[in-house]
From TrEMBL, chain A:
It catalyses: (S)-dihydroorotate + H2O = N-carbamoyl-L-aspartate + H(+). The gene is pyrC. InterPro entries: DHOase (IPR004722), DHOase/Allantoinase_Hydrolase (IPR050138), DHOase_cat (IPR024403), Dihydroorotase_CS (IPR002195), Metal-dep_hydrolase_composite (IPR011059), Metal_Hydrolase (IPR032466). Binds 2 Zn(2+) ions per subunit. The active site is at D309. Keywords: Hydrolase, Metal-binding, Pyrimidine biosynthesis, Zinc. Zn(2+) 2 binds at D155, H182, H236. Pathway: Pyrimidine metabolism; UMP biosynthesis via de novo pathway; (S)-dihydroorotate from bicarbonate: step 3/3. It comes from Candidatus Phosphoribacter hodrii. Substrate binds at H63, L64, R65, N95, N282, H313, F327, G328. Gene3D superfamilies: Metal-dependent hydrolases, Urease, subunit C, domain 1. This is Dihydroorotase. Zn(2+) 1 binds at H61, H63, D155, D309.
TrEMBL record, chain B:
GO terms for molecular function: amino acid binding; aspartate carbamoyltransferase activity. The gene is pyrB. One of its GO terms (cellular component) is cytosol. Residues 4-147 form the Aspartate/ornithine carbamoyltransferase carbamoyl-P binding domain. Carbamoyl phosphate binds at R56, T57, R106, H134, Q137, G275, P276. The keyword Transferase applies. Keywords: Pyrimidine biosynthesis, Transferase. Residues 154-313 form the Aspartate/ornithine carbamoyltransferase Asp/Orn-binding domain. Catalyzes the condensation of carbamoyl phosphate and aspartate to form carbamoyl aspartate and inorganic phosphate, the committed step in the de novo pyrimidine nucleotide biosynthesis pathway. It catalyses: carbamoyl phosphate + L-aspartate = N-carbamoyl-L-aspartate + phosphate + H(+). NCBIfam families: asp_carb_tr, PRK00856.1. Pfam families: OTCace, OTCace_N. Heterododecamer (2C3:3R2) of six catalytic PyrB chains organized as two trimers (C3), and six regulatory PyrI chains organized as three dimers (R2). This is Aspartate carbamoyltransferase.
Length: 443, 322
């Protein structure tokens, strides 16, 4: 591994400095003289003037589809999309086929991630066996496995049985686990629900997904978290009322955290009027009032993190009639740009805030010790360089993902990722990943 | 008119609605001839692609096509597709690969016709998509009402029933609105679509949970000029939308008693129903078979209106209608 010198980057968007990385660790920060070699070791010097240096991004919520749907995504292709998007760690959701509900399944995903070597892939374990919502999966064995699973989720389905949720919250206290809940009361919004309940769903005649179906589960879960003294994480919170419940719960000292997705921040219900299944996602795109509320909560910290809910799907699974098409949209490659568009360009968040919501906080929630660390001497060099002043046009065919269900296709977004570094190694450069670019290009 | 598809009633301007209804009137005359064939669509291929059961809509499109000399072919698809089955796109692309001029589509999923229109070169006609719209039904209802009432400008049309799941209601509020009618829709709150308050305010129709208040308004100007009853699917009861059939009928059925009271004020009140009817649930036998019932007129108008729609989409304005 060559050493790395990032010249003149704006650390967290603030003061410019040079950052020297040696053997994957930040060795020095300050004004450092560039040279081809340093102490006899080869040195790659990157001109980072005008670029923002952030800690490598951490995604609490990605669907990598392997095992089971390797035609839509693999751990390797999802890792590539993540690296291209500035991530150095991603949490892989458990709803694969078979489900990640055993230590062996978790280790397999973990090993596939290490083999791809582009980001740290951390498996999420299922809460219930087979996501059936009936019996607890082997939470403890997954926690004790090589994969050291700490986040558990039945995502895609809600742990709707209150007793099962209570038991899961209680049980994971033994090893510091967190339950990430997909909040959707199945009696108020069943599997067919695909459009936010309101005027648009009424006009379009689409099965309605009311906000209240999320709110009642969030309200119940924060009370269960209080009762058990355990930690609950609200996945992809999408409604104003859920945000208010979380705000209240945090004020009570309840251990609740929450994430929002870039698409819920930026895209609204009205996009469904053309019945394009690329906009079909669960929870559904919400109206402006909800979007404003979750954005405000991300800004004031009631919502802790941005998470992508990256959900690749084979083309034919999106070419059914809207109610029959698969839920979900791509997100890893566009997440940072969308956050920059809705929150940084509008001066609601600083780059330091972005580092918090997309790296520090998610790493803390996930219990990842070596990710989401400050940019400081002695810390692992998981870093991302962003061009804050440039813009780029999203082209779904240029994606690292195997899938093309990209709702941002054709849009111009700000702040492209220039380069991503995992423990000092450049994993992605301008949309291409290791092997697709010449390392000399970076210098 | 250079329209290619008919996907939603909102596609049609007032002029287009008027033009289609005028054409339908001349088509209706053709229907009364001994030899009903027109050469207008000779050599054109119209596929009736029905993913959902239908008797009257499919047969009326088939007859309409045949009387206009189009080659009409019926294809019955499987119900709703699943992730394991063939995608909707694959199904329609396969059919369109056989050089088709128009696809008449009925599908259980809302929006299916909109999606298909993005994929194919053929004209797409929505023959009912899920709980979204049924534009040709609204046109034939407007045609029937116009036959009975003359101009619909300022006329008060009351639509009663399962609005939440009704594509007929969704298309009718648009088309009747285009023609200047005042529309009031009546249903229990559980059978109202989501967000109907905002929707009605924006589109200028009225809503009510109280049928009697709507039918027997104090001011004669607010009384209905026509009543349209919608089918209530019995399976909705298992969804708990209302407690029992008799309770529904008591609140929202066009019963013998309600009919008698209506007739006392307006003996020739047109009564419409898109069918199939649940006699005894939303409509009594007396109302269905009343002298002023327009229900069979609707069926008859269905063929003429669908001929007019095919004509407008496929033949262009330069050719003569008859």
């Amino acid at each position: 591994m060559t050493d790395l010198l990032l010249k003149g980057a704006n650390l967290l968007g603030d003061n410019g400095a040079d950052v020297l990385v040696r053997e994957g660790v930040i060795a020095e920060i300050g004004s450092i003289r560039a040279a081809a070699e340093l102490d006899g070791r080869r040195l790659t010097v990157v001109d980072a003037a005008g670029l923002v240096l952030l800690p490598g991004l951490v995604d609490l919520h990605a669907h990598l589809r392997e095992p089971g749907r390797e035609d839509a995504e693999t751990v390797a292709s999802g890792s590539a999309a993540a690296a291209a998007g500035g991530f150095t760690a991603i949490l892989a959701m458990a709803n694969t086929s078979p489900v990640t509900d055993t230590a062996e399944a978790a280790e397999r995903v973990f090993d596939l991630g290490r083999a791809a070597g582009l980001v740290d892939v951390q498996p999420i374990g299922a809460v219930s066996k087979g996501l059936a919502g009936a019996e607890l999966a082997e939470l403890g064995l997954m926690a004790r496995s090589r994969a050291r699973v700490r986040v558990f989720s039945d995502d895609g389905k809600c742990v709707h049985d209150a007793r099962l949720m209570r038991r899961a919250l209680d049980y994971v206290k033994a090893f510091g686990g967190t339950i990430s809940q997909h909040a959707q009361d199945p009696r108020l919004a069943d599997g067919s629900a695909c459009c936010h309940e309101g005027e648009v769903s009424g006009r379009l005649g689409l099965p309605a997904w009311p906000a209240i179906a999320e709110d009642v589960v969030v309200a119940r879960d924060v009370q269960l978290a209080r009762h058990t003294g355990s930690r609950v994480h609200v996945a992809h919170v999408s409604t104003a009322a859920s945000v208010e419940i979380i705000r209240w719960a945090k004020a009570q000292g309840i251990a609740v955290t929450a994430e929002v997705t870039p698409h819920h921040l930026a895209l609204g219900t009205d996009l469904l009027t053309g019945y394009d299944p690329v906009f079909k996602v669960n929870p559904p795109l919400r109206p402006d009032e909800d979007r404003a509320a979750i954005l405000a909560a991300l800004v004031d910290g009631v919502v802790d993190a941005v998470a992508t809910d990256h959900a690749p799907h084979a083309r034919h699974d999106k070419e059914h009639a809207f109610p029959d098409a698969a839920f979900g949209m791509l997100g890893l490659e566009t997440a940072l740009a969308v956050v920059a568009e809705v929150a940084v360009r509008t001066r609601l968040l600083s780059w330091a805030d972005v580092a918090d919501r997309m790296s520090f906080a998610p790493a803390r929630i996930a219990g990842l010790a070596d990710q989401g660390r400050p940019i400081a001497v002695g810390e692992p060099a998981n870093l991302v360089l962003v061009d804050p002043d440039a813009s780029w046009t999203v082209d779904r065919s240029a994606s690292q993902s195997l899938s093309r269900n990209n709702p941002w296709h054709g849009r111009t977004l700000p702040a492209p990722v220039v380069a991503t570094f995992l423990r000092g190694e450049c994993t992605a450069y301008r949309g291409r990943v290791r092997g697709q670019f010449d390392p000399e290009e970076i210098a | 008119m250079t329209r290619k598809h008919l996907l939603s009633s909102a596609d049609l301007s007032r002029d287009e609605v008027d033009s289609i209804l005028d054409t339908a009137a001349s088509m209706h005359d053709v229907q009364r001839r001994e030899v009903k064939k027109l050469p207008t669509l000779r050599g054109r291929t119209v596929i009736n692609l029905f993913f959902e059961d239908s008797t009257r809509t499919r047969s009326s499109f088939e007859i309409a096509g045949k009387w206009m000399s189009a080659d009409t072919i019926n294809i019955t698809g499987k119900g709703s597709s699943t992730s394991k089955g063939e995608s909707l796109r694959d199904t329609v692309m396969t059919i369109c690969a056989m050089s088709v001029d128009a696809l008449v589509i009925r599908h259980s999923a809302s929006g299916a016709c909109h999606q298909v229109a993005q994929w194919v070169d053929a004209s797409v006609i929505n023959a009912g998509d899920g709980t979204h719209e049924h534009p040709t039904q609204a046109l034939l209802d407007a045609y029937t009402l116009r036959q009975r009432l003359g101009s619909l400008e300022g006329r008060h049309i009351v639509i009663v029933g399962d609005l939440a799941h009704s594509r007929v209601f969704r298309s009718n509020v648009i088309t009747l609105g285009r023609l200047g009618a005042r529309v009031t829709v009546v249903a229990p709150p559980t059978l109202m679509p989501s967000g109907i308050g905002d929707w009605a305010a924006r589109d200028g129709f009225a809503t009510s949970w109280d049928l009697d208040q709507t039918l027997y308004a104090a001011s004669p100007a607010d009384r209905p000029d026509a009543v349209m009853m919608l089918r209530v699917q019995r399976e909705r009861m298992s969804g708990g939308f209302f407690p029992t059939e008799r309770e529904y009928t008591a609140g929202y059925g066009l019963t013998r008693e309600r009919l008698a009271r209506l007739y006392a004020a307006t003996p020739d009140l047109p009564i419409l129903h898109p069918g199939p009817m649940n006699r005894g649930l939303e409509i009594s036998a007396e109302a269905a078979d009343a002298t002023s019932s327009a229900i069979l007129d609707q069926v008859s108008a269905g063929v003429a209106v669908r001929m007019a729609v095919l004509y407008h989409l496929l033949a262009g304005e330069t050719e003569a209608a008859a």
